[in-house]
């Protein structure tokens, strides 16, 4: 009949990772290999109005990036997902509530170094979803000589800022590392990035 008992997705979780809000789930027990999923979300201030997510309708994968589908980054939302196979539909399963603004988890920035004659220009790029580009992302930068515990800190730079460091007095191998910052209800920051090291004013 093409009508099987389709078990609902399990472990439905709304998680924030690397600047993105993502719904994840696992297939229900005994799901056919070609099962697909459809996702919707609702805002805490408009309960029972489930909004469609066009790019997560009848998808084969078990996650949906909701970041840029959300109509507000400041209102708590939750999502739900159902399995679809042929004419069968599973029941919907809901996630918990989260909001981007206070729950966003940050990823470390990627550093680009531009070494000049007597200076070095450091810029940080973030793997941001386009819809959150305008929020006030910042970063902290650390500079230290290899083998030294003593770190010079450059703090609170805006994401598009380039930090220019005078290297006239620096001799040897120096490393840079940065972390992303975001001021919401409290200050959040990512882990520091993997160090990028350069040899400065090396004679010979």
From TrEMBL:
Pfam families: Interfer-bind, Tissue_fac. It comes from the Eukaryota. Gene3D superfamilies: Immunoglobulins. PROSITE patterns: FN3. Residues 8-103 form the Fibronectin type-III domain. InterPro entries: FN3_dom (IPR003961), FN3_sf (IPR036116), Ig-like_fold (IPR013783), Interferon/interleukin_rcp_dom (IPR015373), Type-II_Cytokine-TF_Rcpt (IPR050650). GO terms for molecular function: cytokine receptor activity. GO terms for cellular component: plasma membrane. This is INLR1 protein. The gene is Ifnlr1.
């Amino acid at each position: 009949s093409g009508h099987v008992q389709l078990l609902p997705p399990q472990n439905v979780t709304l998680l924030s990772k690397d600047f993105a809000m993502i719904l994840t789930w696992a297939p229900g027990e005994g799901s056919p290999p070609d099962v697909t999923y459809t996702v919707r979300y609702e805002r805490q201030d408009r309960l029972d109005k489930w909004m469609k997510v066009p790019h997560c309708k009848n998808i084969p994968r078990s996650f949906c990036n909701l970041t840029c589908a959300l109509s507000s980054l400041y209102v708590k939302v939750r999502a739900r997902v159902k399995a679809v196979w042929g004419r069968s539909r599973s029941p919907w399963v809901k996630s918990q509530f989260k909001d981007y603004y206070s729950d966003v988890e940050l990823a470390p920035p990627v550093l680009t170094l531009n070494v000049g004659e007597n200076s070095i220009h450091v810029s940080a790029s973030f793997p941001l979803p386009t819809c959150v580009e305008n929020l006030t992302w910042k970063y902290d930068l650390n500079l230290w000589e290899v083998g030294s515990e003593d770190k010079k800190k450059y703090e609170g730079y805006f994401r598009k800022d380039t930090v220019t460091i005078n290297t006239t007095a620096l001799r040897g191998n120096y490393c840079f590392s940065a972390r992303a910052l975001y001021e919401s209800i409290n200050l959040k920051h990512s882990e520091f990035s993997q160090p990028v090291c350069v040899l400065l004013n090396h004679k010979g």
